[in-house]
Design a protein that fits this description.
- 39% of the residues lie in helices and 19% in strands.
- By secondary structure, it is α/β, with parallel strands linked by helices.
- It has one domain (2-17, 26-87, 111-183): 3-Layer(aba) Sandwich (Rossmann fold), CATH 3.40.50.
- The chain has a 6-stranded mixed beta sheet with strand order 3-2-4-1-5-6, with helices on both faces.
């Protein structure tokens, strides 16, 4: 059995203003820093064995707070990085949708299939080797939404992970199970 806590990083100024973050390497804002510490405090009693993070600063700052509470090191995994929006990073999402009809139709944006493939590969690696306890993956809403949509379409179609939240997945002999969505919010 493998328990995975999918954690979304804390808030940034770009989240707050509705702008696409993508590969922009922005820091947490004051609210995001508080969210990261609240998340770490909430998950501190579950015995996290590993913290694996997107290398982007906002995720790494959140992961660092988790790892300090769990007394483990942060492992970086590029496959957990945010969706690549190319030249549209930093642009208000509403403007992109107004111009192109959807994020998927915008030029230079990483496809949903590419995001999903790399995120599923992380989960496959975790299942392939026994874990000594729960694993926290710190990533971004674009990655987490794709995983949840793919694994649990009926129950997560309209789930938007809040900043500083966690979603608990469990893998056993029967496959993946969704135990909780948007914890700590």
């Amino acid at each position: 059995m493998t328990d995975v806590y999918l954690c979304r990083h804390g808030e940034t100024e770009l989240n707050d203003s509705g702008r696409l973050r993508g590969r922009l390497d922005v820091e947490l804002d004051a609210v995001g820093t508080d969210e990261a510490h609240e998340l770490a405090h909430e998950l501190s009693g579950i015995g996290i064995a590993r913290v694996i993070s997107s290398p982007l600063r906002r995720a790494l700052q959140t992961a660092t707070a988790l790892a300090e509470h769990a007394q483990v090191s942060v492992e970086l995994d590029n496959r957990l990085a945010d969706r690549d929006y190319g030249r549209l990073a930093g642009v208000p999402e509403a403007d992109v949708i107004a111009e192109f009809g959807s994020l998927e139709a915008a030029p230079g944006v990483e496809t949903v299939e590419e995001v999903l493939a790399r995120a599923l590969a992380v989960l496959a690696d975790l299942v392939a080797e026994p874990q000594s306890g729960p694993v926290a993956l710190v990533s971004h809403d674009a990655v987490i939404k794709q995983l949840l949509h793919h694994l649990f379409l009926r129950t997560t179609k309209h789930v938007n992970p809040s900043t500083g939240s966690w979603t608990l997945l469990r893998h056993d002999d029967e496959g993946w199970h969704l135990l909780r969505v948007n914890g700590s919010k």
